[in-house]
Amino acid sequence: MKSEQDIVIELKDLLVRSIEKNLPEEKFAILFSGGVDSTLIAFVAKKLGKKFTCYTTALEEKGLKESEDLVYAEKIAKDLGFELKTIKLNLEEIESYLKETITITGKDDVVTIGVGTTFVPACEQIKKDGLKVIFSGLGSEEIFAGYDRHDKAKDINEECRAGLKNIQKRDLDRDEAIAKYYNLDIKTPFLNKELVDYALDIPGEYKIKDDVKKFILRKAAMEIGLPEEYAMRKKRAAQYGSRIDNAILKLTKKRGFDYKKDYLRSLK
Q1: Which residue among 32, 105, 107, 146 sits deepest, i.e. has the most Cβ atoms within 10 Å of its Cβ?
Q2: Is the entire prediction scored with pTM above 0.90?
């Protein structure tokens, strides 16, 4: 069995190759939450001398808690020298984008629309900026065990494989529909076949270690040169870190509904 350090070294090279092979010649966009996945994509791209802009969507409403993704995105971009554009939305603006996301995806479930509404405003801005390619960290949670269900599973890699089987319907269909609507080409380097195959063979004990999810990915990111503070950052799902889910809850109550799902259905 390979040692943890052997895996870190091999994974480091695979991660860089997976990102590099997707990089276009022209300037591109990165959907940026300040988590290890999007930060690593940006870090590698910068090391390779590529030009890009990071985009972060978040709720900004007077009297409501600030988005932690926005706080980290701004801090990391300043520290590591990334160009960053932030799309700060109030409740009324978010309601408009919720309707847009429902129209584009044809879905109205809370998770799809919550995540999608972090993506739609970014894609709209990216199109205005004249960029054609957008990078997403999608797939990292599945192959490196980033969810609570991985932590609870008897067999971590079995759970990773099960999640990958559902990723098209659960995540890719949504993101591809949104990217297509804005005429953007979406790149998902964590779903590169060579990387996926390798990651699924990494022992589960290296994926969740000392209560740290995606442990081996974080170690490899540090091996590439990402500062430990950013490589080890614990991050919530996009709809929570951006506070979009909180906005949906506020709007649900404001519009007189008891449940978020009923409120979203009313927007169709």
Answers
A1: 32
A2: yes
